[in-house]
Design goal:
352 residues; four-stranded antiparallel sheet; six-stranded antiparallel sheet; 11 helices; alpha+beta
Length: 352
């Protein structure tokens, strides 16, 4: 009878769960069993304080498995920093040893396949650090891991169970990881495409690595079998040079780029200049868009936006009135509102 029962698929008392969060391009994954409180005294009872012999296995001084059944595991696709401690990419068992005073020892172990912590071995520790538990006013019935606070470069992971919360912070060197990946991509088949070099230069510009950005965009423009001058790489080089304070050189490159731009490309460039506060340049680009592309949408509309940003509202209104029959239908209802704002001396780029 016991053999027959072992073959059945039955509900687990503590269901498995997995929670994942991406920081930059790094995935953090926690896999764990979720026990219920079920009216029990949890802290100091179901979860004993400190390190203990659990009555089975080889560990004479074991932490809590930080979940139920198999080891709770935490996995990182790139190197991270946990509470200021660097941890290589990989998969680790996650153990905890709460203390009665509210402190919690958290352990990352290389042993990820054991049942609980019965076979815990301190020699397999990869990292050990302390945090402070938080006592909450409301209880969590089912043990839960959450990413409670997430920023572009970090996340706070918290275990919630009963009335306690146990948080720890994971930081990710996003720009460093991305740049390392880009350098590798430029050496593999992706690097045989011009657009890869454009994208690489654009990312480097965005994080302020201007010399690297210039090197990569120059590779797109000259010296490789795929190299050629395009609106994308020339306008990007102009932006890099502008950031380096090389204004005259930036202007020369921009003049080369403008004749190569489509109506949408020139419009986006102009909008970027408005956002950067380079309003005279924005007007020049939008005027060139109207001239080079014979007033095709969004030429006059973009020019109206540039004049509006300069608070030249009469000129903006004239440009707006020249938008032609190729204007997309979903834009037309907005124009009446924009006209009213311009007549009232209001920049319609600003949402009111």
């Amino acid at each position: 009878m016991s053999n027959l029962k072992a073959q059945l698929t039955l509900p687990a008392a503590s269901p498995e769960a997995e929670v994942r969060q991406r920081i930059g391009i790094t995935d953090i994954t926690i896999h764990y069993g979720r026990p219920y409180v079920k009216g029990r005294a949890i802290w100091g009872n179901v979860v004993p304080y400190g390190f203990n012999y659990l009555g089975f296995g080889t560990a004479k001084s074991a932490p809590w498995r930080a979940g139920a059944d198999y080891n709770t595991t935490i996995q990182f696709t790139h190197e991270v920093s946990i509470q200021g401690n660097k941890v290589p990419a990989g998969k680790y068992a996650l153990f905890m040893a709460p203390e009665e005073n509210g402190e919690v020892v958290i352990i990352l172990s290389s042993n990820t396949t054991s049942w609980g912590s019965y076979f815990y071995d301190e020699k397999e520790d990869v990292l050990r650090f302390k945090v402070s538990a938080i006592t909450n006013g409301t209880a969590t019935e089912m043990l839960t891991y959450r990413f409670d606070a997430v920023s572009p470069t970090s996340a706070t992971v918290s275990l919630h169970w009963d009335t306690k919360e146990i948080p720890f912070t994971i930081d990710v060197a996003v720009d460093e990881i991305v740049m390392t990946g880009i350098r590798n991509d430029l050496r593999n088949p992706k690097g045989f495409q011009q657009t890869t070099w454009d994208s690489a230069a654009n990312y480097a510009l965005g994080i302020g690595q201007l010399d690297q950005a210039l090197e990569w965009i120059d590779a797109s423009i000259n010296g490789n079998f795929f190299s050629k001058e395009t609106f994308v790489n020339l306008s990007l080089k102009s932006r890099i040079l502008e950031k380096q304070g090389k204004t005259e050189a930036a202007q020369r490159i921009l003049k080369k780029a403008i004749p190569l731009g489509s109506p949408d490309e020139l419009y986006r460039l102009g909008i970027g200049l408005i956002a950067d506060g380079q309003l005279d340049k924005a007007v020049d680009v939008m005027q060139a868009n109207v001239k080079n592309n014979k007033g095709a949408f969004p030429g006059h509309y973009g020019l109206a936006r540039a004049f509006s940003a300069k608070k030249e509202f009469k000129n903006a209104l004239k440009a707006l009135e020249k938008t032609g029959p190729d204007t997309p239908e979903h834009f037309k209802p907005r124009f009446e509102r924009y006209r009213e704002q311009l007549k009232n001396g209001q920049d319609f780029n600003v949402k009111l």
